[in-house]
């Protein structure tokens, strides 16, 4: 399930940012295209791909791959 989550999250980042690979170090500060509008687009894409609802507070804290993965693991119970 974790591998599936990672692969699907990688696909979301590819769709939103055009990057081929991600790791836990990818963040708002390391990806030039990750601005406020892209963040909203990313959150919507994550919600759609994983069929989850992200709260405003969660979205504010989801500023790197590690944080996004942690929220998804909690919501998907993996």
How would you characterize the overall build of this protein?
With 78 residues, this protein is an all-alpha fold. The chain has one domain (2-76): ACP-like (Non-ribosomal Peptide Synthetase Peptidyl Carrier Protein, Chain A, Orthogonal Bundle), CATH 1.10.1200. 63% of the residues lie in helices and 0% in strands. It contains 4 helices and no strands. It has helices at 2-17, 36-50, 56-61, 65-76. The longest helix has 16 residues, at 2-17. The mean pLDDT is 95.
Could you name the CATH homologous superfamily? ACP-like
What percent of residues adopt helix (DSSP H or I)?
Answer: 55-70%
Query: Which blocks of ≥5 consecutive residues have pLDDT under 50?
Result: none
Number of domains: 1
Q: Please trace the helix and strand order, writing H or E for each element.
A: HHHH
Average per-residue pLDDT, rounded, comes to: 95
**CATH class type:** Mainly Alpha
CATH topology: Non-ribosomal Peptide Synthetase Peptidyl Carrier Protein, Chain A
What is the topology?
Layout: H1 2-17, H2 36-50, H3 56-61, H4 65-76
Helix pairs in contact: 1-2
Notable traits:
0% strand, mainly alpha, 63% helix, globular, 78 residues, 4 helices, Non-ribosomal Peptide Synthetase Peptidyl Carrier Protein, Chain A
């Amino acid at each position: 399930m974790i591998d599936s989550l990672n692969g699907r999250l990688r696909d979301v980042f590819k769709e939103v940012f055009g990057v081929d690979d991600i790791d836990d170090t990818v963040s708002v500060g390391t990806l030039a295209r990750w601005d406020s509008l892209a963040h909203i687009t990313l959150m919507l894409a994550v919600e759609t791909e994983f069929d989850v609802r992200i709260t405003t507070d969660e979205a504010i804290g989801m500023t790197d791959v590690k944080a996004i993965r942690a929220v998804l693991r909690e919501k998907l119970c993996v």
